[in-house]
């Protein structure tokens, strides 16, 4: 029964992947990509990776989908010329051979993986008590491999600096996205007033349960970012100007708190990113709570793109 | 054939498809989508590895699952930067072509030693 | 008691699945975007509602059931909004319906 | 402390490694929040502190004559992440520090926030990205964990790509996009290799992997994927097509950063993998393949460089060629290993090549930038007057060129000498031929540029701008570093090999 379900899932995944690659219209391809991401969520669930499934649904399918849809809509005029540049048959055949060889190699590697598989699950189980959290993935992300999480927050910040650096010089210090035009009767405006309170509760809740159950800062931050984007899309509030100090503080605050607590660990617990005995859980919650707004603002601003207009521009 | 193996093979095919799209698609936005398809295939390999490492009362090895969350977020940031570049290129030049200059399309043969 | 509830669940979820099927057929077969939206939202909201009702007796506690209902309400809100926006964009002269 | 830690591996001074990674990123965040010309000031304070830090690390390494190790969070691998700096890492850290300072001095004039302006996009971005490149490279050098290295590679990509399109012209945006697509494909292949390694051996730690990896299909697959991915990021022929437009189109300081340092990150990782992780897995033929690609890069890159009409493109293609030299060390290391000889000489040769190329190429790109500013163009056919207006800079260009060619006593000479000796010791005479031909081709274009620049200017010619002496001084200083690096042969022992026998005693052999 499970195998039949998996087979159906595999078939659908491959079909949608092929569709996103061959569909002539980019918009149509993107509308294949989003369900592809959602179906992948089912694959993570089948592999018992609930936290990953949540992240995939939120970021992999959700945010990436929005990003691609918006871009596809704006890039419509470039499709026909691009199609004309399609590489010739020899290149495509060569590419197909190379890709097929790579796929075959990976397939062989997957089949040849050792059995029983090596695992760190027992090591995590043995040491999780000292971190005070119940969700093993949170323990890995915030304690055993906290460095990766810290660096990842820096990656996001750096990505945003990269996106902002693409602004035209005249727009520097301005705001991203189109100017807001609120239609008081629009249903979007209604939604943008009703949904955010619920969304904020949900986002904070996901962060809070993340200590012991599936969930965490990335998933929670995505929900918060989505709420903010909704409010901006409805024209209720404008995107912030990129030279505002509060924006920059909000962006850098989370990683800064993380580093500060890490250094505290170097002084008190004997190791950078170590936590003093008994204080592990509260400190982890503090770091996650500090990362949440930073990540939410970063994710939302990554989607809105570089600054495009200054106040007073038309 | 059990579920992880089946999904592992599916992942291999997805990586192959993504790689093909990355090399062949002329439009950068399609390349970015192909990159995401390929990335998802790679993440699926990782999830399969995590599932195979189930033990100690956990449904999967939490270490690769945690790596996966990190990698997903990084991949999103990469996509966002790439899309922003494509849009800016379009604004600046009215085109998104990658081959206006002498250098040709992605060298397919170059991936040969993979 | 357990048996009756299980039968209720099966019937309700099956009915929900039928509405999803009908909605999907409508999406594929109807001639233009407006009618497709009609088919999709009506059928899916009803279908999801039936699935949720069917699953309620299987929940562990009141909280879990409430969460399930909240999910349904959220989907209703989102799909209604999105359909409205799509329809409005079309009427303002977007791409041909 | 956690019970899983058998012995505390952290060495005295290990915390310095953490600080070396964190400091640039803390500076980045602080500069980002303060903004405007404060960012530049913060960058300089950070660089100053960083120089002290790197000196302290080098001193520690010298005194202890062993690698520095730090367990992050107190967790030992395989559960935790370890930072580890051996002689190779520390040499690279010192190199990066020196080049960053040189580029920073040069960039002071180009990326200033003018008075009356609160904040300038290009200036702010440049200083933040300079710090980011520096921090990510430090992480690449000291990380002992293959997944953390993936994150480091992504950091490096995200720092490098916006540098390419700093001036916002369409062609640089296109170059940046192509660079990004290559780099992303490369990191994905690398990441897949990382996952496969974990699936097969249950650890991500380099030292533990070195113990556990055996010559079997999964390890071959992982090694092939990771290497292919990294080659795309280093721009080894034939994956080099993204490099020339990207490096030639960026502003001079950014080109210098990209060409001298950023590509070395992925190269360093290839060295780590092939020499430290996979020594028992990679075979001599595969190393020969890598060497053959390097040889092709040397020949193709140099020939194409000769035919370039613009100075910056010439310098960029010369980078393509010089990357080739960096990969000649692999067949030599494999050959020495196969002959049961000490492979340290080839590794040190490769490292010296990286160092001398980094300093020389940074000097050359910045010299090209000054020539462009002075003449208003950089057409190689008409460099008249450059020598008169910029004597210091053209001298620097010639010195850097001498290092690329491999004239004594330059670093390039010492590097090629070590590589040649290794080639002769292992009877791989064909690499000798490649290096000699490459040197001849390099000297052709270096002399061409210098001779044309020395030609007298037309009557009444005036330089477009007077470039600050500080910029000329920075260029000359970097070129001198490269030229005098050969004196490293006078050091009492091979600094680069400190802590490396330790790696091997923990490793497979």
Walk me through this protein's architecture.
The complex is a heterotetramer of chains A (314), B (114), C (97) and D (509). Chain A is an all-alpha fold and 314 residues long. Chain A has two domains: 1-86; 122-314, no CATH class. Helices cover 70% and strands 2% of the residues of chain A. Chain A has twelve helices and two strands, in the order ααααααααβααααβ. In chain A, strands 1-2 form a two-stranded antiparallel ribbon. Chain C is an all-alpha fold and 97 residues long. Chain C has one domain. In chain C, 84% of the residues lie in helices and 0% in strands. Chain C has helices at residues 2-29, 33-55, 62-91. Chain C is elongated, with a radius of gyration of 16 Å. Chain D is built from 19 helices and two strands. Chain D is globular and about 70 Å long. Chain D has a domain at 285-509. Chain D has a two-stranded antiparallel ribbon. Chain D has helices at 15-34, 36-64, 87-110, 121-142, 146-164, 170-201, 206-212, 217-234, 243-249, 252-277, 284-306, 311-338, 344-375, 386-389, 391-405, 411-425, 429-454, 469-484, 500-506, and strands at 68-71, 82-85.
Measure the end-to-end span of chain D. 31 Å
Radius of gyration of chain A: 23 Å
Helix/strand-derived category of chain A reads: mainly alpha
Number of helices of chain D: 19
Distance between the termini of chain A: 60 Å
Average pLDDT score of chain D: 89
Give a short account of the largest sheet of chain A: 2 strands, antiparallel
Helix/strand order of chain D: HHEEHHHHHHHHHHHHHHHHH
The helix content of chain A, as a percent range, equals over 70%
Low-confidence stretches of chain D: 1-6, 502-509
Number of strands of chain A: 2
Contiguous runs where pLDDT drops below 50 for at least 5 residues of chain A? none
Strand order of the largest sheet of chain A: 1-2
User: Which two chains touch over the largest interface?
Assistant: A-B, 100 and 88 residues
Largest sheet of chain D: 2 strands, antiparallel
Quaternary arrangement of the chains shown?
A: heterotetramer
- Overall mean pLDDT of chain A: 88
